[in-house]
Automatic annotation (TrEMBL):
The keyword Nucleotide-binding does not apply. One of its GO terms (molecular function) is FAD binding. This is FAD-binding domain-containing protein. GO terms for cellular component: mitochondrion. Residues 53-417 form the FAD-binding domain.
Amino acid sequence: MPSIAGAGGGRLFSVNGAAAYWGSSRRRLLLLQRPLFSSLAGGGTGDDVTPHLPVVIVGAGPVGLVLSFLLTKFGIKCAVLEKNVEFTRHPRAHFINNRTMEIFRKLDGLAGDIERSQPPVDLWRKFVYCTSLSGSILDFDKIISPISVAHFSQHKLVDLLLKKLDGIGFQTCLPGDIGSSTQDLVLENKILMGHECSSVQLTDKGILIGASFNEAGRMQERKIHCGLLLGADGARSTVRELAGIHMKGQRDLQKLVSVHFRSKDLGKYLSRERPGMLFFIFNPGAIGVLVAHDLEHGEFVLQIPFYPPQQMFEDFSTKICEEIIVKLVGWEPSDVQVLDIKPWVMHAEVAEKYIGCDNRIILVGDAAHRFPPAGGFGMNTGVQDAHNLAWKLCLLQNGVASPSILQTYESERRPVAIFNTELSVENFKAAMSIPAALGLDPTVANSVHQVINSSLGSVIPRNLQKSVLEGLFSIGRAQVSDYILNEKNPLGSLRLARLRSILDEGKSLQLQFPAEDLGFRYELGALVAEDCAETTYEAEKQKHSKRSREYIPSAKAGSRLPHMLMRALSTSNEGVFSTLDLVNGDKPEFALIIAPLKVSYELARAMLKIADELKLPTKICVIWPQGSVDAKVKGSRSELAPWTNYVDVEEVPRAPVNSWWEMCQITSKSVILVRPDEHIAWRTESDRVTDADSEVRRVFLKFYV
């Protein structure tokens, strides 16, 4: 059983969902007062056989691997524990949204690798329903972002991430590669496969992890001492359980069986006749959602709802799954090969808190939130969690930020997860509106299931219950038979008209949410909140309830920096790049964006001086109007002297917008401080600042020191 203990005689346990200590009050005081990163740079702990690492990440899925890449790139030593001995090949997440692709652009070209490796866009930009080829066409315009969304299976993304990690010195190791001895063990830059985090003990200098592993048929435990434990171990997180952190929200929305199979015959047919990403199939024989992970190679995942205890996961043998595939396809492909069958449960929950155990344990990704897959928010939200956290840990390690910066991770990311949970549930309900319009209301199926459980569950055997349930479901599926669902049948004609109306009005399942994907905004956290904050999460919810999907660029504090193409001035390079590229991707660095105005230069000089004092990497980005001449541009050199960490860029606007400032709905007198994660930390008007030094110190000292 997983366990968690405090140092010395103190022990951590769970009381009403909250962590509490027993032991002497003096001991508790010592635990609270010890430095958070007392040994973050690594090194000994006084225990010669326990290796010490600044950070240990539990979970080697996409979120854990992205986090390990960013931390290593930022100079933080870490190791990854993964309980499985090999990486799963069962496709899970597959849709990568704009914001995540923007992050991947700066992971040594990962976004480009994905674009080159993903299936051709024309094969996956539609959703296909059983009665029509109508579906949501995805938009690939690059006006609002420098990169498009992608359709790329999670297991293939993991492969690419492992290659990126290998390129910066990471190794993937099995228990036998390391051995049982911990003497002089160096674990940094290693992914330890087959290692499960089974116990956690708080110490004076961090956390002592017990990592259990099987070697030669015998279970053993390796002790690892670290400053911080980051739980990226998925929806059934052991780390979350050890920390005593509970989930809040809706549980058991749907139980499903996920069938991973290959069929090149089916892939060729769909590529030719009905290309798409998602296929919602409703017929008298079966109901399911088919995810086409790769039509060219014939790789699919079929999601089938099931209702225990009448229907059990064990009922779905390879043979039964093959039969269901044939029923849903409508003909029998000659080469169906079932590769894997897994059960899973759909939840809509967010952790009550992201940080626990005296700021030593932090939850990231699915360990912190579990969404319905409708909308593809799960992995994307997790990657963005990692992006938000990594630069803050770097500032903490470098002694620039205080431990309180960790709390800004929770105050920024948890509201986003709550919002995305609600949006995913709404999108799931929108997806269910299609079968409901066809006479297959899922709420009716759930009610039938509940009635059988409550009235027959304790009276008749399970097999008989199963026959009753499946008999009733068979009658329900008859609603989509050709006899009923046709234009000549009054009931069928009415249902088809209702279906067309849902599709035409865009009220079915959506996969692109630009307003939420790019337009979300942090209100509280590592930023200077604006006095007249017009956009709150409540306001966003109201817009969201009206199904507003339009992204409106905003330069308000907490927003992602709006994208526009720029061109570097005073260089021989004629290429264009995004405003997002003004923020350094190789190290945590702040960027102050200004227009070439005297009052703004004055504020920029103060920013550079104080940032230098605080050892906070910062550069100035001067945005010039299109067509600016070299003679004017050279003015930045004299205005910012003696500082040289600045760049002059020229706008490359796209009609109907005339300038970046106009697009952001602000004047060129604005100065904007952008964080390392491309979110705006502070905005003001340069001519309103009476004491530049004092204002800059207020901004930096309030949040980063």
